[in-house]
Structures are given as structure tokens and as C-alpha cells.
């Protein structure tokens, strides 16, 4: 299982996680995604978003004291799994994903960073695969993977069942659409990203409706966590602010994200907006994102937590 997009701009949902099938605004249908092929992109995206994840995990560190077992449900290639191993130096981390090749990368990453003895992997589809855990989790993290499960309420209940008494469930869902571009690009109609957001919102609704066992659910995460038997629900949002002029790494992410949007929505885009995207993605165009000095990455992701009663 893994993280794929749901907030906007093509991969805002991936962040180094996979989903067994798919995560990604702007990736076509979930089952069409080859997550192993996506691995380098997933890793690059998660690494770019590392400041956001570091702040989120620092906050979790104040909420969760000395966890013994941390489960990363939808770990993908393990960028965030390894950050958990770094942040919680006494914990064992279990990376869980539907893609065995991505888990191999997670294990290799852990060994490269010196966490190989504290990171294990478990391959299988969420949430059922969690029943194979040998021990209950003190912290179970699901970063942008839950919305790829048809019945989110049932999945949260299954997640909660794998927690130790006093354990914490933390899900990263929602936030704000990513922004890369000024509202007025100097060509075309201002507000391109807002129009892309609208297309992505429709795509996300269709993606959810097409999932096996899909159940329509109001995204009141505090209520859903409470319905799963958990207490003390809290939410906090974390910001990624990479200002202009964008670094080469940030620029590559912007190019990849806009390319994916054009690939997925090219046939449904207004012709003028498609022409704008083509200009933005032309490496030779001075007005394109490869060359212009005013592109940036601004994103906000929200983490929701709750605790299993003792």
C-alpha cells in the first residue's frame, strides 16, 4: 500500500509511499500505476518534502513517548520509514506496502543509513496484511494511503485493532493543494492552477468511487477516528515552503508534476490551458518552469491523531 496523491497537483499524495496499487492525483486509475517504476520519482518527492515530514514527526514525538514498534502503513520505498527510525532511535519500524520492489528499496535505504537492524518489511494489501504483525503497534502511521482504500471507516477500525493499549494512530490526509506558479504567468489566462485543482477534485471523486468496496464517507477525521474506538483526536497541518527561485531538485519535481497533469488531463483541458501547460513544460521557452525565476513549491499536509484507550 502506499501514499499517493489526494490534495492536488499530481503527486501531492505520493510522497515516497506506494499503495499496493496507487496513489496519485493525476496518475490515471490506481491499478494502472507501476509503483516499482515510479520508485525514483516517489523517493525524490519524499526527499523534497523532508522538511515537512521532519516537522510532522517532531510533533508526533511530543505526542508519543518512546514507541517500541512503529508501523508505516503504505511505506513505498521507505523514505519516511527511515525518518521514523532516525527520529525514534529506540523503536523498531515496520514498513508495510503492497509492492515488494518498493519494500526492497526501503530495506536497502535503511541499511545504507544504518537502520537496517531496526527496520523490517511486510508485503501485502492494506488493511488485511496488518493482521500478520507479530506485535501490536505503539504508533501506526498511514501517510496518504487511507484514501486508496474503498471503505475508509472499516480500514481505520482495522488500523486501530493493531494498536497496543495507549498506542497512537496517525493519518496524513488532506491539507491544501500544492502551488508552484504565480497566479498571472504573463501569458494565457491567470489562475491556471485553480482550474487544474478543479479537474483534480473531479478525478479524486471518480478514483474513490471506482475503488473496490468503495463507501462514500464524510471526511470528518475526528469523528471517524472516534468511531474506530480511539480517543483524544487532534489535527495539525505542516507547511513545505520552498521559495523562488526554485532549486534544481524542486524544479524537477514541478516539471514532473505538471507533466503528469498534462498527461492525465490533456484531453479534458481547455485548449488555451493545454497550450499554457505546453509552454510551461518547454525547456527552451523562457516563460517555462525550466527557466523562469518565479516558480516555487508551497504545500500543506494535515496529520490527524488519536489514541487507543488503555
Short key terms for the protein model shown above:
disordered N terminus; 310 residues; alpha/beta; 9 helices; seven-stranded mixed sheet; 7 strands; Rossmann fold
Description:
This protein is of the alpha/beta class and 310 residues long. The chain has a domain at 30-180 and 216-243 and 299-307: Vaccinia Virus protein VP39 (Rossmann fold), CATH 3.40.50. Helices cover 37% and strands 20% of the residues. It has nine helices and seven strands, in the order H-H-E-H-E-H-E-E-H-E-H-H-E-H-H-E. It has helices spanning 35-48, 50-63, 79-87, 100-113, 152-161, 192-210, 221-227, 248-265, 271-280; strands spanning 69-73, 92-97, 119-123, 137-143, 163-179, 231-242, 297-307. It has a seven-stranded mixed β-sheet, with helices on both faces. Helix 5 links the parallel strand 4 (137-143) and strand 5. Helix 2 packs across helix 3 (79-87) and helix 8 (248-265) packs antiparallel against helix 9. The chain is globular and about 60 Å long. The two termini are 29 Å apart.
Brief summary of the model shown:
This protein has a domain at 30-180 and 216-243 and 299-307: Rossmann fold, CATH 3.40.50.150. Helices cover 37% and strands 20% of the residues.
